[in-house]
Design goal:
With about 160 residues, this protein is of the alpha+beta class. The chain is built from six helices and seven strands, in the order E-E-H-H-E-E-E-E-E-H-H-H-H. The structure holds zinc ion.
């Protein structure tokens, strides 16, 4: 089970948690960090048209998870490195200036979560996102650059916002 599902009990698994991903990793040549496999549908949805045409095929790409690395998707076999500017959306984990997107399906940003915490001492993000996921409204695989469910990241961000 993926990390986003661990905050819920097994009886209420999210549809997005059933997305089949292989858990191989590859090393990003620009940062030496690990990348996880990116799905073809994610690449097709989020890479800008000219770059998408240039890569010819969306298969075999990995998603670089290093916040400080400008590479978003890479394919070492074909020596293709797609950077932030080649992708249609802002990659939240790689941005330091607002808005820092975290949930791409329902528009949650770091600012929105932190503002809620400031106003009311907690954030409703996890609850609201979970409810929408359960009703089948999430489209992580075509909206989130990681192609995965955002809830694990949202959970981490709420914790960060709540402080120690
Ligand atoms: Zn990298």
């Amino acid at each position: 089970m993926k990390s986003c599902c661990e905050i819920d009990n097994a009886a209420s698994r999210h549809s997005c948690c059933d997305i089949k991903v292989n858990e191989d990793t590859a090393i990003c040549k620009e940062c030496n960090g690990k990348g996880k496999p990116a799905r073809e549908i994610t690449i097709e949805s989020l890479v800008k048209e000219p770059q998408l045409e240039a890569i010819e095929s969306p298969d075999g790409f990995y998603y670089c998870e290093t916040p400080t690395c400008g590479v978003v998707y890479f394919n070492n076999e074909r020596q293709v490195y797609l950077h932030k500017e080649d992708v249609k959306v802002r990659v939240g984990i790689k941005e330091t200036e607002s808005p820092i997107s975290i949930c791409y399906c329902f528009g949650w940003t770091q600012e929105r979560i932190f503002e809620q915490i400031k106003q009311q001492g907690n954030s409703t993000a996890v609850k609201e996102i979970s409810a929408k996921i359960k009703s089948g409204e999430c489209e992580c695989e075509i909206k989130n650059p990681s192609g995965r469910c955002c809830l694990g990241d949202v959970n981490k961000m709420v914790k960060k916002g709540m402080g120690p």
